[in-house]
Amino acid sequence: MEKQKKPVTKDIKHEYSIKGMDFVAAGEASSNIKHTLQLIGFAPAVIRRAAIAAYEAEMNIVIHAWEGVLITSISPERIEIIAADTGPGIPDIDQAMKEGYSTAPDHIREMGFGAGMGLPNIRNVSDEFTLDSSLGRGTTLTVVIYPTA
Amino acid sequence: MKLKETVNELEAEFKCCKLLPDRDVSWCYCSDLLSDVMANAKKDSIWITLQTHPNIVAVASLIGLSAILISRGAEPDPETIAKAAQENIPILTTKLPTFEAAGRLYSLLKK
Ligand SMILES: Nc1ncnc2c1ncn2[C@@H]1O[C@H](COP(=O)(O)OP(=O)(O)OP(=O)(O)O)[C@@H](O)[C@H]1O
Ligand SMILES: [Mg+2]
Protein backbone atom coordinates (compact mmCIF):
# COMPACT_ATOMS: atom_id res chain seq x y z
CA MET A 1 0.00 0.00 0.00
CA GLU A 2 1.22 3.44 -0.86
CA LYS A 3 2.16 5.67 2.01
CA GLN A 4 -0.11 8.61 2.45
CA LYS A 5 1.51 11.78 1.22
CA LYS A 6 1.78 14.83 3.43
CA PRO A 7 -0.70 17.49 2.41
CA VAL A 8 1.22 20.18 0.53
CA THR A 9 -0.02 23.73 0.17
CA LYS A 10 -0.45 24.36 -3.52
CA ASP A 11 1.38 27.16 -5.25
CA ILE A 12 -0.81 29.76 -6.88
CA LYS A 13 0.07 29.77 -10.56
CA HIS A 14 -0.74 32.44 -13.10
CA GLU A 15 0.30 33.04 -16.67
CA TYR A 16 0.16 36.35 -18.53
CA SER A 17 0.94 36.75 -22.20
CA ILE A 18 2.98 39.72 -23.36
CA LYS A 19 3.17 41.13 -26.86
CA GLY A 20 6.25 42.79 -28.26
CA MET A 21 5.96 46.56 -28.84
CA ASP A 22 2.51 46.72 -27.28
CA PHE A 23 3.06 49.79 -25.12
CA VAL A 24 -0.62 50.19 -24.34
CA ALA A 25 -0.93 46.91 -22.44
CA ALA A 26 2.63 47.13 -21.10
CA GLY A 27 2.70 46.95 -17.33
CA GLU A 28 -0.64 45.21 -16.94
CA ALA A 29 0.80 41.79 -16.17
CA SER A 30 3.05 43.28 -13.50
CA SER A 31 0.21 45.21 -12.04
CA ASN A 32 -1.91 42.04 -11.82
CA ILE A 33 0.96 40.22 -10.15
CA LYS A 34 1.29 43.02 -7.63
CA HIS A 35 -2.43 42.88 -6.82
CA THR A 36 -2.26 39.12 -6.28
CA LEU A 37 0.65 39.55 -3.88
CA GLN A 38 -1.22 42.27 -2.01
CA LEU A 39 -4.28 40.05 -1.69
CA ILE A 40 -2.17 37.25 -0.25
CA GLY A 41 -0.77 39.79 2.20
CA PHE A 42 2.98 39.84 1.64
CA ALA A 43 5.00 42.63 3.29
CA PRO A 44 5.23 45.86 1.25
CA ALA A 45 9.00 45.50 0.84
CA VAL A 46 8.57 42.02 -0.65
CA ILE A 47 5.82 43.22 -2.97
CA ARG A 48 8.02 46.06 -4.13
CA ARG A 49 10.85 43.69 -5.01
CA ALA A 50 8.54 41.37 -6.93
CA ALA A 51 6.87 44.30 -8.71
CA ILE A 52 10.24 45.64 -9.86
CA ALA A 53 11.33 42.24 -11.15
CA ALA A 54 8.04 41.61 -12.92
CA TYR A 55 7.90 45.06 -14.51
CA GLU A 56 11.48 45.09 -15.79
CA ALA A 57 11.07 41.55 -17.17
CA GLU A 58 7.76 42.47 -18.79
CA MET A 59 9.20 45.60 -20.40
CA ASN A 60 12.19 43.69 -21.70
CA ILE A 61 9.81 41.36 -23.54
CA VAL A 62 7.80 44.31 -24.85
CA ILE A 63 10.90 46.18 -26.03
CA HIS A 64 13.43 43.52 -26.98
CA ALA A 65 11.48 40.37 -27.86
CA TRP A 66 8.61 39.36 -30.13
CA GLU A 67 6.25 37.85 -27.64
CA GLY A 68 6.39 36.05 -24.37
CA VAL A 69 4.80 35.08 -21.08
CA LEU A 70 5.20 35.90 -17.42
CA ILE A 71 4.51 32.84 -15.29
CA THR A 72 4.21 33.29 -11.54
CA SER A 73 4.18 30.58 -8.97
CA ILE A 74 3.49 31.83 -5.48
CA SER A 75 3.49 30.24 -2.06
CA PRO A 76 3.97 31.94 1.32
CA GLU A 77 7.62 30.85 1.33
CA ARG A 78 8.57 31.47 -2.27
CA ILE A 79 7.68 33.81 -5.11
CA GLU A 80 8.84 32.66 -8.53
CA ILE A 81 8.54 34.73 -11.69
CA ILE A 82 9.52 33.23 -15.04
CA ALA A 83 9.70 35.50 -18.07
CA ALA A 84 10.02 33.45 -21.23
CA ASP A 85 10.00 34.90 -24.72
CA THR A 86 10.54 34.12 -28.32
CA GLY A 87 12.81 36.76 -29.72
CA PRO A 88 16.30 37.58 -30.92
CA GLY A 89 17.97 36.32 -27.73
CA ILE A 90 20.93 37.93 -25.99
CA PRO A 91 24.34 37.39 -27.66
CA ASP A 92 26.44 38.25 -24.59
CA ILE A 93 24.74 37.90 -21.22
CA ASP A 94 27.61 39.37 -19.19
CA GLN A 95 27.50 42.48 -21.33
CA ALA A 96 23.69 42.69 -21.07
CA MET A 97 23.98 42.53 -17.27
CA LYS A 98 26.26 45.60 -17.16
CA GLU A 99 24.55 48.70 -15.87
CA GLY A 100 24.21 51.19 -18.72
CA TYR A 101 24.38 48.66 -21.54
CA SER A 102 21.36 48.88 -23.82
CA THR A 103 20.52 48.18 -27.43
CA ALA A 104 17.23 50.10 -27.26
CA PRO A 105 16.73 52.30 -30.34
CA ASP A 106 16.36 56.07 -30.07
CA HIS A 107 12.58 56.23 -30.23
CA ILE A 108 12.41 53.84 -27.27
CA ARG A 109 15.02 55.83 -25.35
CA GLU A 110 12.99 58.98 -25.84
CA MET A 111 10.26 57.29 -23.82
CA GLY A 112 12.68 56.87 -20.94
CA PHE A 113 13.48 53.21 -21.52
CA GLY A 114 16.94 51.99 -22.45
CA ALA A 115 18.93 53.15 -19.45
CA GLY A 116 20.41 49.67 -19.31
CA MET A 117 19.23 49.31 -15.73
CA GLY A 118 16.44 46.75 -16.01
CA LEU A 119 18.43 43.51 -15.71
CA PRO A 120 20.69 44.89 -12.94
CA ASN A 121 17.57 46.06 -11.10
CA ILE A 122 16.06 42.59 -11.36
CA ARG A 123 19.21 40.97 -10.05
CA ASN A 124 19.32 43.42 -7.13
CA VAL A 125 15.83 42.55 -5.93
CA SER A 126 15.98 38.79 -6.39
CA ASP A 127 17.35 36.01 -4.21
CA GLU A 128 17.85 33.70 -7.20
CA PHE A 129 18.41 34.98 -10.71
CA THR A 130 18.90 32.85 -13.84
CA LEU A 131 19.11 34.19 -17.35
CA ASP A 132 19.23 31.78 -20.30
CA SER A 133 19.17 32.82 -23.88
CA SER A 134 19.49 31.25 -27.26
CA LEU A 135 20.28 33.42 -30.27
CA GLY A 136 17.45 33.79 -32.74
CA ARG A 137 15.12 31.80 -30.48
CA GLY A 138 14.48 33.59 -27.24
CA THR A 139 15.25 34.29 -23.64
CA THR A 140 14.12 32.84 -20.32
CA LEU A 141 14.60 34.67 -17.07
CA THR A 142 13.83 33.02 -13.75
CA VAL A 143 13.63 35.04 -10.58
CA VAL A 144 12.94 33.72 -7.10
CA ILE A 145 12.22 35.88 -4.07
CA TYR A 146 12.05 34.38 -0.57
CA PRO A 147 9.69 36.61 1.40
CA THR A 148 11.22 35.66 4.72
CA ALA A 149 14.87 35.97 3.66
CA MET B 1 2.65 66.46 4.15
CA LYS B 2 -0.47 66.13 2.01
CA LEU B 3 -0.45 66.45 -1.76
CA LYS B 4 -2.81 69.44 -1.60
CA GLU B 5 -0.32 71.36 0.56
CA THR B 6 2.24 71.25 -2.25
CA VAL B 7 0.03 72.34 -5.12
CA ASN B 8 0.24 76.13 -4.62
CA GLU B 9 3.98 76.24 -4.16
CA LEU B 10 4.49 74.04 -7.23
CA GLU B 11 2.08 76.20 -9.28
CA ALA B 12 0.57 72.87 -10.23
CA GLU B 13 -2.70 71.88 -11.76
CA PHE B 14 -4.47 68.53 -11.39
CA LYS B 15 -4.98 66.70 -14.70
CA CYS B 16 -6.72 63.82 -12.99
CA CYS B 17 -7.57 62.38 -9.61
CA LYS B 18 -8.43 65.81 -8.18
CA LEU B 19 -10.27 63.92 -5.49
CA LEU B 20 -7.08 62.52 -4.03
CA PRO B 21 -5.57 65.74 -2.57
CA ASP B 22 -4.99 64.04 0.80
CA ARG B 23 -2.41 61.56 -0.40
CA ASP B 24 0.74 61.61 1.67
CA VAL B 25 3.86 63.08 0.17
CA SER B 26 7.07 62.32 1.99
CA TRP B 27 9.77 62.78 -0.64
CA CYS B 28 10.44 63.47 -4.31
CA TYR B 29 12.36 61.90 -7.17
CA CYS B 30 13.36 63.58 -10.43
CA SER B 31 14.15 61.43 -13.46
CA ASP B 32 13.10 60.81 -17.02
CA LEU B 33 14.44 57.23 -17.02
CA LEU B 34 11.82 54.68 -16.06
CA SER B 35 14.15 51.97 -14.72
CA ASP B 36 15.92 54.58 -12.62
CA VAL B 37 12.64 55.62 -11.02
CA MET B 38 11.69 51.98 -10.53
CA ALA B 39 14.91 51.30 -8.63
CA ASN B 40 15.36 54.51 -6.70
CA ALA B 41 12.16 56.44 -6.05
CA LYS B 42 10.81 55.96 -2.54
CA LYS B 43 7.19 55.12 -1.85
CA ASP B 44 4.93 58.17 -1.31
CA SER B 45 7.14 60.40 -3.43
CA ILE B 46 6.14 62.91 -6.03
CA TRP B 47 7.86 61.97 -9.29
CA ILE B 48 8.88 64.96 -11.38
CA THR B 49 9.39 64.13 -15.07
CA LEU B 50 9.10 65.30 -18.64
CA GLN B 51 7.75 61.92 -19.80
CA THR B 52 4.10 62.10 -20.78
CA HIS B 53 3.21 58.64 -22.15
CA PRO B 54 0.98 56.09 -20.36
CA ASN B 55 3.81 53.89 -19.08
CA ILE B 56 4.67 56.46 -16.41
CA VAL B 57 1.41 55.48 -14.71
CA ALA B 58 2.38 51.81 -14.44
CA VAL B 59 5.70 52.77 -12.88
CA ALA B 60 4.08 55.11 -10.35
CA SER B 61 1.44 52.60 -9.44
CA LEU B 62 3.80 49.62 -9.10
CA ILE B 63 6.09 51.34 -6.59
CA GLY B 64 3.41 53.32 -4.76
CA LEU B 65 4.29 56.89 -5.71
CA SER B 66 1.90 59.56 -4.49
CA ALA B 67 1.70 61.60 -7.71
CA ILE B 68 3.38 62.40 -11.00
CA LEU B 69 4.29 66.02 -11.66
CA ILE B 70 4.97 66.81 -15.31
CA SER B 71 7.24 69.83 -15.45
CA ARG B 72 8.19 72.67 -17.81
CA GLY B 73 4.72 73.01 -19.29
CA ALA B 74 4.61 69.56 -20.92
CA GLU B 75 1.17 67.98 -21.21
CA PRO B 76 0.29 64.33 -20.52
CA ASP B 77 -1.13 62.28 -23.42
CA PRO B 78 -4.90 61.73 -23.15
CA GLU B 79 -4.24 57.96 -22.74
CA THR B 80 -1.97 58.78 -19.82
CA ILE B 81 -4.73 60.69 -18.08
CA ALA B 82 -7.22 57.89 -18.75
CA LYS B 83 -4.87 55.27 -17.35
CA ALA B 84 -4.02 57.41 -14.33
CA ALA B 85 -7.70 57.90 -13.52
CA GLN B 86 -8.14 54.14 -13.68
CA GLU B 87 -5.14 53.45 -11.44
CA ASN B 88 -5.79 56.36 -9.04
CA ILE B 89 -2.49 58.08 -9.68
CA PRO B 90 -2.83 61.87 -9.56
CA ILE B 91 -1.16 63.63 -12.48
CA LEU B 92 -0.27 67.28 -12.11
CA THR B 93 1.40 69.70 -14.45
CA THR B 94 3.46 72.82 -13.80
CA LYS B 95 5.14 75.45 -15.95
CA LEU B 96 8.18 75.30 -13.64
CA PRO B 97 11.21 73.41 -14.93
CA THR B 98 12.24 70.32 -12.96
CA PHE B 99 15.00 72.05 -10.99
CA GLU B 100 12.72 74.80 -9.69
CA ALA B 101 9.85 72.48 -8.92
CA ALA B 102 12.17 70.13 -7.04
CA GLY B 103 13.77 73.04 -5.18
CA ARG B 104 10.43 74.31 -3.98
CA LEU B 105 9.30 70.85 -2.96
CA TYR B 106 12.58 70.28 -1.12
CA SER B 107 12.05 73.40 1.00
CA LEU B 108 8.50 72.34 1.81
CA LEU B 109 9.40 68.79 2.76
CA LYS B 110 12.46 69.80 4.80
CA LYS B 111 10.43 72.14 7.03
N1 LIG C 1 14.13 39.49 -23.36
C1 LIG C 1 15.17 39.98 -24.06
N2 LIG C 1 15.38 39.60 -25.34
C2 LIG C 1 16.43 40.09 -26.04
N3 LIG C 1 17.32 40.96 -25.54
C3 LIG C 1 17.18 41.37 -24.27
C4 LIG C 1 16.10 40.91 -23.46
N4 LIG C 1 16.22 41.47 -22.24
C5 LIG C 1 17.31 42.25 -22.29
N5 LIG C 1 17.90 42.20 -23.50
C6 LIG C 1 19.16 42.87 -23.93
O1 LIG C 1 19.88 43.25 -22.77
C7 LIG C 1 20.07 44.68 -22.76
C8 LIG C 1 20.03 45.19 -21.33
O2 LIG C 1 18.74 44.98 -20.75
P1 LIG C 1 18.26 45.94 -19.57
O3 LIG C 1 16.89 45.56 -19.18
O4 LIG C 1 19.30 45.91 -18.47
O5 LIG C 1 18.32 47.40 -20.21
P2 LIG C 1 17.30 48.05 -21.28
O6 LIG C 1 16.06 47.24 -21.36
O7 LIG C 1 18.04 48.27 -22.55
O8 LIG C 1 17.01 49.45 -20.59
P3 LIG C 1 16.09 49.72 -19.29
O9 LIG C 1 15.73 48.38 -18.73
O10 LIG C 1 16.94 50.52 -18.36
O11 LIG C 1 14.91 50.46 -19.79
C9 LIG C 1 18.96 45.22 -23.65
O12 LIG C 1 19.25 46.49 -24.17
C10 LIG C 1 18.90 44.14 -24.73
O13 LIG C 1 19.94 44.28 -25.65
MG1 LIG D 1 15.05 46.65 -19.65
Characteristics:
heterodimer; A: 149 residues; alpha+beta; Heat Shock Protein 90; five-stranded antiparallel beta sheet; 5 strands; globular; B: alpha/beta; Udp-n-acetylmuramoylalanyl-d-glutamate--2,6- Diaminopimelate Ligase, Chain: A, domain 1; 5 helices; 38% helix; 20% strand; binds adenosine-5'-triphosphate; binds magnesium ion
Descriptive overview:
The complex is a heterodimer of chains A (149) and B (111). Chain A has five helices and five strands; from the N terminus they run βααββαααββ. In chain A, strands 1-2-3-5-4 form a five-stranded antiparallel β-sheet, with helices on one face. Chain A has one domain: Histidine kinase-like ATPase, C-terminal domain (Heat Shock Protein 90, 2-Layer Sandwich). The model of chain A has no long low-confidence stretch (mean pLDDT 95). In chain A, α1 packs antiparallel against α2 and α2 packs antiparallel against α5. Chain A is an alpha+beta fold and 149 residues long. Chain B has one domain: HprK N-terminal domain-like (Udp-n-acetylmuramoylalanyl-d-glutamate--2,6- Diaminopimelate Ligase, Chain: A, domain 1, 3-Layer(aba) Sandwich). The N and C termini of chain B lie close together (10 Å). Chain B contains five helices and five strands. Chain B is globular. At the A-B interface, α1, α2 and α5 of A face α2 and α3 of B. The complex binds adenosine-5'-triphosphate (ATP) and magnesium ion (MG).
